[in-house]
UniProtKB/TrEMBL annotation, chain A:
It holds the Pfam family Tctex-1. It comes from the Eukaryota. InterPro entries: Tctex-1-like (IPR005334), Tctex-1-like_sf (IPR038586). CDD domains: DLC-like_DYNLT1 (cd21462). It comes from Clavelina lepadiformis. Belongs to the dynein light chain Tctex-type family. This is Dynein light chain Tctex-type 1.
Amino acid sequence: MDDFQAGEETTFVVDDVSTVIKESIENTIGGNAYQHNKVNQWTSNVVEQCLNQLTKLGRPFKYIVTAVIMQKNGAGLHTASSCYWDNSTDGSCTLRWENKSMYCIVSVFGLAI
Amino acid sequence: MEIVYVYTKKRSEFGRQCNFSDRPAELHVDVVPDPTLTTEFIERNPCDTAIQCTQEMSEHEVNTERFETESRGINHVEGGWPKDINPAEVEQTIRFRKKVEKEEHYINTVQQLGSVMEHCIKQNNAIDIYEEYFDNMEVESAEEPPSAKTINVFRDPNEIKRTATSLSWYPDGGKKLAVAYSNLEFQRSSPDTSFDSYIWDIENPNKPELTVKPVSPLVCLEYNPKDSHILVGGCYNGQIAFWDTRKGSHPVEMSPIEQSHRDPVYKTIWLQSKTGTECFSSSTDGQVLWWDIRKLGEPTEKLVLDPTRKLNIDNALGGISLEYEPTMPTKFMVGTEQGSIVSCNRKAKTPAEKIVCLYPGHYGPVYSLQRNPFFPKNFLTVGDWTARIWSEDIREACIMWTKYHMSYLTDGTWSPVRPAVFFTTKMDGTLDVWDYLFKQNDPTLSIQVCDEAVHSLRVQDNGRIVACGSHSGTTTLLELSSGLCTMQKNEKNLVSGMFERETKREKILEARHREMRLKERTQSQQGARQDEEPRAEDDEEKELIEKAEKEFLRAIEAEKKSLEGRQVEEIEEKEKASEEESEKPADDPQQAED
């Protein structure tokens, strides 16, 4: 846990990743209401943008990004995950974003190379 | 998605032992169900979705098979009686009637119906809702652009298509159209080509109403304006035949070959006579023959179109179109294959005097010739690449003409309701509608009727519907917009003024020509005595020509120079502006003022 290499971060920093995710969601579905015919496009966009921004961070990580968009009509949703990795270097970040008509949940898993 | 990430790793770090440890399950998202949110939505029940179990195609045409229908009538004699009553037996029917009349149901029904009827009658008596409210209103001329739309297309039912060479409308109201089909290309028709021509009912394009079966294909076909059952047709082999539609498809009588024309009969017209049975025909063999259909054994009169008036058939001009106006029964005109137009008088004493005069005409055959129905002194001719309007009095040249078109003009006709409107058809399949009061350079409306040449044209008497016959026998009916078939205010006066003006202009030109010719003649006579004078005249002329040329060239040069000067100035200005711009970008407002 103390293996810090000078000049390069080799641990998963949750805050940065969180910011990246938030930005990409805002950009894609920022002020929109749920539209069934556009949801496909939105999820793809969110995931792509996230991934692009994450690789731009320039860290030696493998990324896995998942996104879920759910319409707000009274249903419940529960997700969980379990991982077997190197706890010192790898990490995950899940962001839950909502507006009046939908929820958007994006998870990013980062695995050190 | 193209993402490339390059990273470096120390060799010593390769194959590093993996320190894996388990991370227990973590709950990411927990959204509690909220039934109150369902109030934001309404249930859609049922949901309609359209599904079709067919191939997906981008474009597909389907046309049902032609279903041939025939109209028949039924004569209904008696009926509606129940099974056990024999309608022939009067007793039974009376008994049945009495029985029914006594029924309560019948009495109630009649009473109810009676009250309904009473209501309607009272309504009608109170106000006449069907009266003509705006009788005195004038129809205001709509400012819509002229247009025409196709209302029907009649195709030649035969396999081998022939050209629709002549069209004739039914005399009363134009509900039928007689079309003559023949192949005018020399020796191009195959032996299986049908000889038939058809009479179409304009409402039914699927099947012709009557087939006209001549011995040889008909080049022209005309309804008798006095008797709408009689038609006369001119054949390709020169014979004349007449049909009675009540008597069937075969001709009632045909003229004998020895007495007929020697070439296809291009035009026949019915004459205005007491009996209504006289007609005359023209053909390219140079003869014009008069016939009485009661006796087609031989023509009643003959005329050879010899311009030298010697009745020499070898010199004769071939007649392609005829013109006859019922209001001027003694005069008629023939348009010839050679391009000239011959004006004739039927009542002349000697055959030589029958030919009154010759108009120069066109460079090619005069395909159509018609007097203006409102101003019979002026006539329209169509041939070569132009349409020309002539005045009877001016024999040297036409008074008005259209520009030269890109394809030959095949037929032309005046509109029967508007004196300034005429129609022409061309080899490229267009129909041009010319409104000479509105525009003289171009047709007011040009419609592409079909892709092949249009050979014949006929306007119905109401001026609204136009029929065009094409090269492959397709006859198209077009309906014109109301602007083209209602007379405009003051149109007659304007048109007569226009014609008079042009006639006067031509007269003046003619007079000047005559004067000049006279002068030349006298000068050449003088020149025989004094040789130098004509030469001096020539020299003077040459000098004048040279002077004119020099002035012309001078004017051109001056224009060119001023144009160049202006261009140079513009270029200089532009350079200056771009220089200033690149030096001081902040001074833009100043330059804008400059």
